[in-house]
Amino acid sequence: KIAIQNAQIVFIEVLIALFAGYRSYQSMPKSEDPALSLPNYSVVAVYPGTTVEDMEELIVNPIEDELYALEDIETIRTRVEEGIMILQVEGTLGIDIDDKYDEISNLITELESDLPEDIFSLEVGKASPEDIAIVQLAVVSEQATYAQLEQEAERLELAIKPLPSIRDVELVACPEQEIHIELDLDKMALRNISLNQLIGTLLSNNQNIPGGDVDAGAKSLSIQTTGSYKTLEELAQTVIGNFQDRVVLLGDLAKIDFAYEATKWAGRFNGTPAVYVNITQKKGENILTTTQTL
Question: Considering 133, 174, 194, 221, which has the largest number of Cβ atoms within 10 A of its Cβ?
Fold first, then answer.
């Protein structure tokens, strides 16, 4: 009865509530997954060519023994396969996640001296919903090389990274470009050039070394050697040695060309070669607004 008698006031209050709810919805953070902060960590070791038994003896057991000695560790789950170990570590709820991550990272760093020296990689990570990509873009072409695809993907990266709601932009499935040098051992032997001599010459020439400063009155000049290679032609013109009063160049001893690192997987989009751009969002941002901006 009171509501009917004051219909106008009730109507205004309903409008205010609807407006407040709409404004709250618009400003409410929205993300791909709930922003939960859980003390979950991972330790991943890659040791190619090692059997499961050797992985357990040489890597898993030493790491597990040290981790179990830490405080505030609830459970440790281990998965071991040939050449790889994955440890999932769960801490006690309520602990400082970053401090425990630093503690585990320092522990693994100290253990490295007791582990095999030729381990390919040993990494510590922590779980975070912020690491999940909210958008994945594919740069696709049937004719372009991976280097060209990567160049276009990097242009996207430079355009997207400055956006205020973007946490990180990562390029995936772009193999690193390498320079392959195919040596002719017969030509090297004929010119009395050893492999160590050739490698040492390339290493010494492919680096920039600061040469210090020179004071010239009111001016100060910085000196730096310019030894890094910029083109294949520069590399081919590297002087390796001399033979019968003639300079021996790298191009006289080898074939030089650009190539890509050996990869076990490649990116495809509907069967076409592609480089992917993974985009993650900062905590507390609105995924709807972020995707519209993108």
Answer: 174
Res 210 pLDDT > 60? no
With a CB cutoff of 8 Å and minimum separation 6, the contacts of 79 are: 85, 86, 88
Report the amino acid identity of residue 248: V
The percentage of the chain sitting over the pLDDT mark of 70, rounded to a whole number, equals: 84
Please give the model's pTM, rounded to 2 decimal places.
0.53
Helix, strand, coil distribution of the chain in percent, nearest 5: 35, 30, 30
Contact (CB, 8 A) for 87 and 76: yes
Task: Tell me the longest C-alpha to C-alpha distance in the chain.
Answer: 115
DSSP assignment of 108-167 equals HHHHGGGS-TT-SEEEEEE--GGGS-SEEEEEE-SSS-HHHHHHHHHHHHHHHTTSTTEE
